[in-house]
Amino acid sequence: ESQTFQQFRNYRNEISKRIAAQNPNYSGIIDSTGFPEGYGPTSQDVLIPSFLAAYSGKDALGVSLNSMPSIPLPNWRINYNGLMQVQFIKKRFKTFTLGHAYRSTYSVGSYVSSLDYEDNGTGWSSSINPNTGNYFSQFEIRQVTINEQFSPLVKLDMTWKNSLITKLEIKKNRMLNLSLSNNQITETNGREYVIGTGYRISDLSFKFRSGGRGKKISSDLDLKMDVNIRNNKTVIRKIVEDEEQITMGQQTISLKFSADYVINSTLNLKIFYDKVITNPFISTSYPGAITNAGFSLRFTLAG
Q: Rounded CA gap, 269 and 294, in Å?
């Protein structure tokens, strides 16, 4: 990911020259940093397209220079069960489903119209901010955010002929926040692995005595177990100083087991065991573990 950050920093020079070449009010002066005057390395008009290009995998010469693009990013969800037509799979499974989904949002937060913006009827800024040395932008934007989720990246959901349920899932997410007030990128990456299984024991019978007489109950017992491993890491990248620092991050491992038994139409018994283990990635946090176990009786009053 640091390579992407360096690419973002490199894109600024190319994009600043693209913008300057299109601005009819630009005087054609290059300052000591190698950037066109009015479109320096911290200019809002330069940083946002560079950010979008680097972190969306686009080229600096082809990315839109508009900070508020009108065309939304694509999103999709795919579920495929056509493998059930394969004889080997059809013979062993009741259901066999592959899944994949992608969701992405781009948001512009906390922006106002600039009172100092002038374009002289050209549609391009014609006045330079004396405090920053950059052209005034039409909108003063505080931050922009990209939020991406592969939820799931890959999902495999199977029900075997013997009623055993198996689930395998991989998820990924990434949130990128470009702050224009302090010239920093905050990047949060997550990866999650889910392994789940379940089994139903049909017509499980128990005998007990009540009121001096023997009674028998018979119902299905549902067993479920899920193992979840998730890694989260947050990194702050300083644009001007070219520095990066991990500020937050941890690995979370959770184990969940439950057994459900319906005693009758109004009474349900559940036994559960949950354990969560946390291993931080930074030395200022401590590892920890939480365990919950017990049983619950749920009684339903019929209306």
A: 11
Rounded CA gap, 251 and 230, in Å? 6
SS (HEC) of 115-129: CCCCCCCCCCCCCEC
User: If we measure between CA atoms, which residue out of 289, 219, 44 comes closest to residue 143?
Assistant: 44
Longest dimension (CA), the chain: 102
- Of 146, 116, 147, which Cα lies nearest the Cα of 132? 116
Q: What angle do CA 12, 38, 108 make, to 5 degrees?
A: 60
3-class SS letters over 240-286: CCCEEEEEEEEEEEEEEEEEEEECCCCEEEEEEEEEEEEEECCCCCC
**Segment 222-273, tens digit of pLDDT:** 999 999 999 999 999 999 988 888 889 999 999 999 999 887 777 888 999 9
Q: Are 117 and 111 in contact (CB under 8 A)?
A: no
Tell me the two tokens of residue 297. 């009786």
